[in-house]
Design brief:
The complex is a heterotrimer of chains A (289), B (354) and C (262). Chain A is mainly alpha-helical and 289 residues long. Chain A has a single domain, classed as Orthogonal Bundle (MetI-like fold), CATH 1.10.3720.10. Chain A contains 14 helices and 1 strand; from the N terminus they run αβααααααααααααα. Chain B is built from 15 helices and 14 strands. In chain B, strands 1, 2, 3, 4, 7, 8, 9, 10, 11, 12, 13 and 14 form a 12-stranded mixed beta sheet that branches. The longest helix of chain B has 20 residues. The N and C termini of chain B lie far apart (57 Å). The relative contact order of chain B is 0.17. In chain C, helix 7 crosses helix 9 and helix 8 runs antiparallel to helix 9. Chain C is globular, with a radius of gyration of 23 Å. Chain C is mainly alpha-helical and 262 residues long. Chain C has a single domain, classed as Orthogonal Bundle (MetI-like fold), CATH 1.10.3720.10. The chains are: A mainly alpha (289), B alpha/beta (354), C mainly alpha (262). Chains in contact: A-B, A-C, B-C. The interface between A and C is large, with 98 and 98 residues. Strand 1 of chain A pairs parallel with strand 1 of chain C, so a sheet runs across the interface.
């Protein structure tokens, strides 16, 4: 971003400060100080509330490493994030391609709007609506049995697939959006040139289109993977007995069990893992950009 | 943009924001914390109480005893009345969350059954920390559509015919105590935790989902997704009376967990007089009879209230019978160490289910 | 090119299927808000009772207003502060600028569960406490980076010579900004504002940890209802909101081109 701005830019932090300060002060108070406070809390034995005794401890982190429970949950949350991201790529990328390269003019505009419109309905309600669709005797079951000549039993509710379906539904528009933006920027003449030089459709796809749209794919993947790893309300509503994930355990520490220091430590471990994964993805992203 | 302008803008925003936050606190409100759909939030009851006393009731709800305690801890001064299971009264008092109640202000207190009123769980140092309200059972409830005749044993939960059609509550203490009954142990003195663990582990594959509110249970029955599960006696009654669902309560021969729900006043309540009036109204026979007939409820701790029910009422005939009394075990307070042990066990069971 | 045509039609069919998947729950939600059974039992029985009882539900209405108010204030504050910061990042060159730009990403790149719980701990610790003020603090911080990114993108298309020209004609900094730069970046500012509104209005996780009873937003109230006893009133309020926001979106789309050719 900075390189292109160089022309006409003037030097010096001083004149920039009055413009920058309000926004960054706000971010400091609402994001950076809280994150530091969380790290601090994660080393405490108890909350410093109502004159309670507290001291520093490593016990909260020890709890994570000594009980296989937490690492199992973290792994299953990471797996959930990975699976949801993959499904979003598989479902979202072709849609973005059709949107960018097949549809033209007003119909493209209209469909694009339709894809991003669900963002403006409440995410929780959309998740809950899946419960009505997926359960046995629910809408999907009833509809399919009315159409199909043979009897089938659809009961996906309260299962791992239900959580996946709900999450993919919530996040797939992000993937369509980011991929669409990069696909749209690819010049059609590049694709035609490839084809006229004798490359097959498949070769053009793998050698030209996918590499050029990589930044969109990765940006979309990051936008989906990060929140899914920390999701707790979707598994709670759709997962039933299989709905225990790392996020739900953190929620419990804050809302029910009232063990904030342990919750802080678990949050911080999740943060570290997410940052490591993002850092690993960053070089790819930078190279592609 | 100049700084003064910005400051003015931010100040204006701050004033605006505080204006709509401060409006929320009115003096004559009674803030009540309870389970949802559990008497205190019945619209007719709230309307009657408000008309009689002039106080305005503001309801808030919790999903578990743990969440209830956290809500009082993190919102000091907000609540005036809180409904606490007697087994958790100790913990709330030790955490300095609730205050002694001046029972001389409650005209209905004298009618409360002596054994309930004098329960050591609710009285500390000669002071009353909880006013007994209702008691009931955590027993089994069945979907009538799935049974020709009601089962009598707790073992029905493990029957292969109900695989994937069983429901239990997402609560560590309740699950462990249920396991204790299933293995023939005393719920307040579990000697063989391994047996409880093994029993619950073998139950996990049977389970459809965990419930955390009455509404969960009722929805599962309404959509015919479950056959049998643990349920509270008052809730089963409500499901049948109020929601017209095919639900009936089973008190298994192995026994059931009994609990006593009581009202307390949190430390820092801004409207103690309103709280006392509300608690007194909640233990009034008139309210109770209306609650049972219209909606369905557990058994009142007020003897006059129970006597006001018809002879053959379930809460009088069955719940009052000596045969049932023999089978049930009242929950006693549990220590922090026990609670942590139960929670760890429950989490482990839930994680390994996948 | 017959294959191309077939592929294109398959592509269109695919888009229709995807839209079906995206809209299925929304359609169900709308339908169920007119169904009489509180447990979503079929067969369908028409009723508008849930809309009627919605008006009696003070708690839900209060939470809806809170959501709208917070979203509007968040939009105002974050577009103003965000546009200012974008201008500074565009106009001036200084050491540490890259760091400042990188600092915009944590609010987007960290799971809301972590930001939310961290805010809870911090606000609780320093005495800001929870409630609407805390929720507003959090929402603005979450929306700021979106505004800065969108406005900066628009600024990239701005020719700095315009500012120079205005300055050489004797305009002061304030006049240059208000008369030349701002009109140019306005579409970016408005797009950023729409983002900010959407981020705030649909924000659940951060609001959930920062709300107190009586000071909640609509998504928090909905979550509580789902866990403690869901009524189709929630479907009714969601249906109203999606209809209103769709109308708003279509209206905005008439004025600004989203996704169309540049």
């Amino acid at each position: 971003m900075a390189d292109q701005l160089a022309i006409g830019s003037r030097r010096g932090l001083k004149p920039a400060l009055p413009l920058l300060l309000p926004a960054y002060l706000w971010l400091t108070v609402a994001i950076f100080l809280p994150l530091s406070a969380m790290v601090f809390f994660s080393f405490m034995t108890d909350l410093p509330l109502a004159g309670k005794e507290w001291s520093f401890t490593l016990g909260n982190y020890a709890a994570f490493f000594s009980q296989s429970l937490y690492s199992t949950l973290l792994l299953s949350s990471l797996r959930l994030g990975l699976e949801v991201t993959l499904w979003c790529v598989v479902i979202g990328y072709p849609a973005a391609y059709v949107l960018a390269k097949v549809l033209k003019g007003r119909s493209r505009e209209a469909i694009f709007l339709l894809v991003i419109l669900p963002f403006w309905s409440n995410g929780l309600v959309r998740i809950f609506s899946w419960a009505m669709v997926l359960r046995e005797g629910g809408i999907l079951d009833t509809a399919l049995n009315a159409v199909l000549p043979f009897k089938i039993n659809i009961d996906l509710m309260y299962s791992y697939p239900a959580v996946i379906i709900g999450l993919v539904h919530s996040y797939v528009p992000y993937m369509v959006l980011t991929c669409y933006l990069t696909l749209q920027a690819i010049d059609d003449s590049l694709i035609e040139a490839g084809r006229s030089l004798g490359a097959s459709r498949r070769q053009v796809l793998w050698r030209v289109i996918i590499p050029l749209s990589m930044p969109g794919l990765i940006a979309g993947a990051a936008l989906i993977f990060v929140p899914v790893v920390g999701s707790f309300m979707e598994p709670r509503i759709l997962g039933g007995r299989t709905g225990t994930f790392y996020g739900t355990v953190i929620e419990d520490q804050f809302v029910a069990v009232f063990n904030w220091p342990l919750g802080a430590a678990l949050s911080f471990i999740l943060l570290a893992v997410v940052l490591i994964i993002l850092a690993l993805a960053a070089p790819v992203l930078r190279r592609a950009a | 943009m100049r700084m003064p302008r910005l400051t003015a803008f931010l100040t204006a925003t701050a004033v605006f924001v505080s204006a709509f936050t401060l409006g929320a606190q009115a003096a004559e409100e009674v803030h009540v914390l309870n389970w949802k759909g559990y008497g205190a939030d019945e619209p007719w009851a709230v309307a009657n109480f408000e008309k009689a006393t002039g106080f305005k009731v503001v309801n808030d709800f919790f999903n578990s005893e743990q969440e209830m305690l956290t809500k009082i801890r993190t919102n000091p001064g907000l609540y005036d009345v809180v409904m606490i299971n007697a087994a958790f009264n100790d913990q709330a008092m030790a955490g300095k969350l609730i205050q002694p109640i001046d029972v001389s202000k409650l005209s209905n207190y004298a009618d409360i059954a002596k054994d309930k009123a004098s329960s050591p769980m609710l009285n500390h140092d000669g002071k009353v920390y909880g006013v007994p309200w209702v008691w009931g059972l955590t027993a089994l409830a069945i979907n009538e559509k799935s049974f020709d005749k009601p089962p009598t044993s707790i073992a029905e939960m493990w029957h292969p015919a109900h695989k994937g059609r069983v429901i239990i509550r997402d609560d560590a203490v309740e699950a462990v105590q249920f396991g204790a009954i299933a293995t023939g142990q005393n719920i307040n003195d579990i000697k063989d935790m391994d047996a409880v663990k093994a029993k619950l582990t073998s139950l996990m594959p049977q389970i459809k989902t965990f419930w955390s509110s009455e509404n969960d249970w009722n929805q599962m029955v309404a959509s015919n997704q479950i056959d049998i599960g643990t349920y509270w006696s008052g809730s089963a009654d409500r499901a049948k009376t109020h929601f017209k669902l095919p639900v009936s309560l089973v008190i298994p021969q192995e026994g059931a967990v009994a609990w006593l729900d009581a009202f307390s006043i949190p430390v820092g309540s801004k409207n103690v007089a309103g709280a006392e009036a509300f608690i007194n109204y909640m233990i009034d026979p008139k309210f109770y009879v209306e609650w049972v007939t219209k909606v369905g409820a557990p058994v009142s701790a007020n003897t006059k209230a129970v006597d006001a029910l018809p002879e053959d009422a379930f809460n009088r005939k069955v719940m009052g019978s000596p045969d049932v009394a023999k089978r049930i075990q009242f929950q006693a307070p549990i220590t922090d160490a026990q609670r942590e042990k139960y929670l760890a066990l429950w989490q482990e069971l839930k994680v390994n289910v996948k | 090119m017959a294959t191309t045509r077939i592929l294109e039609w398959l592509g269109r069919l695919y888009i229709v299927l995807l839209l079906g998947f995206l809209y299925l729950p929304i359609i169900i939600m709308t339908a169920m808000s007119f169904n009489a059974s509180p447990f979503y039992q079929l067969p369908f029985e028409w009723t508008t009772d849930w809309y009627a009882s919605l008006w009696q539900n003070d708690q839900l209405i209060a939470a809806t207003w809170n959501s709208i108010e917070i979203a509007i204030i968040t939009t105002l504050i974050s577009t103003v502060l965000g546009s200012m910061a974008s201008l500074a990042l565009y106009r001036y060159d200084f050491r540490g600028k890259k760091v400042l730009q990188a600092l915009l990403f944590p609010p987007i790149a960290i799971p809301w569960l972590i930001t939310g719980t961290a805010m809870l701990i911090f606000f609780f610790g320093v005495g800001i406490g929870r409630g609407l003020v805390a929720i507003l603090l959090g929402h603005v911080a979450l929306a700021l980076p979106y505004v800065i990114v969108v406005v900066s993108a628009r600024l990239q298309t701005f020719a700095p010579e315009l500012e120079e020209a205005a300055r050489s004609l004797g305009a002061n900094q304030w006049q240059v900004t208000m008369r030349v730069t701002l009109p140019w970046i306005m579409p970016g500012v408005i797009a950023g504002g729409l983002f900010a509104f959407a981020v705030s209005f649909d924000q659940f996780v951060v609001s959930y940890f920062l709300s107190t009873p009586g000071q909640t937003t609509l998504p928090v109230e909905i979550y509580a209802a789902i866990r403690k006893g869901f009524t189709p009133e929630i479907n009714a309020v969601s249906t109203i909101i999606i209809v209103v926001s769709m109308a708003l979106m279509l209206l905005t789309a008439r004025f600004f081109k989203f996704g169309g050719e540049k």
